[in-house]
UniProtKB/TrEMBL annotation:
Pfam families: KAP. Keywords: Membrane, Transmembrane, Transmembrane helix. One of its GO terms (biological process) is microtubule-based movement. This is Kinesin-associated protein 3. One of its GO terms (cellular component) is ciliary transition zone. GO terms for molecular function: kinesin binding. The chain crosses the membrane at residues 20-41.
Amino acid sequence: VVLGALARVLREDWKQSMELATTIVYIFFCFSSFSQFHGLITHYKIGALCMNIVEHELKRHDVWQEELEKKSKTYILNAVSSEGGVASCILNLT
């Protein structure tokens, strides 16, 4: 009953809290040390669920990486533009 409830919470709520998902996956990992629980872990498809979680997190990582690269390019362009503007102001003053 408890493993069923944990499996349901993991299946339904893992996107809402990565900390909760990590904790529940670790609990299943601990249970997997005992062969008596292998059938239940297989029945609740915890392995497939873990793979879905990992795939989703890899996609999120790729999106974050792309956003970081875009923001970094924008920052560099803004810095170069402002340096050019400062230089022209100084030249105009002299």
